[in-house]
């Protein structure tokens, strides 16, 4: 999951879709003059500007709003482990903060892109060679998978987490097989506050033809030792609203 060190679109903001205002936006938008020359970071792929003309203050912050509005229609939302999320018809991916749940909003989840914790330089290079940006025109399908890991995981030392994550669970090695068909971005939530319901918000997009491959990918990862430390996971499948 692209964190800063891996993610093409964060390193080179402005990538992504060009479609209607409700769809994915790319590049810098005039945010009520705030952006013009004031160094407002351009919108990353797959994000709407924060509402009300507010400049994007933290370029690494994204908010996912489940409700009646947004560029993505919810096809299914399954609780894989733990509690489900309230049912929503659409997901709005906002680049920035969402202070107030909009009309018809059921939930909002926030996370920041961040640096790698476990990825070696060699793995980073191998991913950089293969991975694609979010927002390809053909990527009409997506998945938002919020995940929380248990206290036992967080009590482990860094090297032991790395050993479980890669040496034994082969997370990156498995993931590499599915690039570039699957594009990805990882958002970290845990350090935003004690009340965050998840530790990670994982986002993927892909072409309809690769939907079965995505199912294979998640099945492979969920069968690993790493997933024994997951105590909440919701699998939300999305189709882009044309
Ligand atoms: C598309 C193929 C995939 C690749 C190449 C991939 C690669 C990665 C990488 C490089 C990291 C960051 C490790 C670090 O912090 O250095 C990561 C983290 C993570 N990925 Fe994936 N991933 C893929 C698919 C998935 C899928 C399908 C899921 C969920 C079903 C997932 C869930 C996660 C989670 C939760 C983390 C954070 C783990 C932690 O910090 O404890 N990944 N992945």
Described by the principal axes of the CA atoms, the overall outline is globular
| Each distinct ligand | protoporphyrin IX containing FE
Structural category is alpha+beta
Helix content: 10-25%
Q: How far is it from the N-terminal to the C-terminal residue, by CA?
A: 26 Å
Oligomer: single chain
Bin the strand percentage: 25-35%
Topology as a string of helices (H) and strands (E): HEEEEEEHEHHHEEHE
Measured on Cα atoms, how large is the radius of gyration?
17 Å
- What is the helix tally? 6
CATH architect. name: 2-Layer Sandwich
Write the SSE topology.
Layout: H1 8-11, E1 25-27, E2 43-49, E3 61-67, E4 72-81, E5 90-95, E6 107-112, H2 121-130, E7 141-149, H3 151-155, H4 158-168, H5 171-176, E8 183-188, E9 200-206, H6 211-222, E10 230-240
The structure holds protoporphyrin IX containing FE (HEM).
Description of the structure:
The protein is α+β, with helices and mostly antiparallel strands and 242 residues long. The chain has one domain (51-240): Alpha-Beta Plaits (2-Layer Sandwich), CATH 3.30.70. It is built from 6 helices and 10 strands, in the order H-E-E-E-E-E-E-H-E-H-H-H-E-E-H-E. Residues 1-16 and 18-41 have low confidence and may be disordered. Bound molecules: protoporphyrin IX containing FE. Protoporphyrin IX containing FE binds at residues 1, 3, 6, 116-119, 127, 145, 147, 149, 171-172, 175-176, 178-179, 182, 184, 186, 200, 202, 217-218, 221.
